[in-house]
Task: structure prediction
Amino acid sequence: MTGRRNDPWDKPWVTIAIVAGIIAVVAIALVFFMGSGNTSEQSLPGKTTPLPSGSSTQVTQISGTGASQTTIKVPATVSIPGTGVFVKVSYIASFSGTYGVNGVMQKVRNSGDRLYEITNSTGNVTATFTKEDGSAKHEITVELWKNGKSLTSAKNSTPFGKVDIRYAL
Result:
């Protein structure tokens, strides 16, 4: 039998279907990446509720989107009291560590700006804190305060960085 092989490319509808498919994909990609031309939804006015003093959340409501509200956590600032001995730890993510005086240590795990009071603070103060993530962008800071004045501090921005301060009171 001598005959022609049944080649799908010989049929004109296959070529037309492929060309139409390519044109459809290009058109959909253009609409997707260029947008629909309606720019009114790209910048929506927002209503921001101001923060009361000492608050740690801020609410922003976008009108006209159907979404009721978005809550953004804003870390509260820590104020150092005028009397007493305190260890202040500042890190945007999670940290853990110990602090204390004369070997009597307290274990903590937290995040953000935190203030830890050291009672009976006569002797050798030790504070050791470690970042619990691999971030190299943000640094962990540990400070020792007495009666509203900074005595010493240390910082570390390496991944899983450790900060250690020792001070004799």
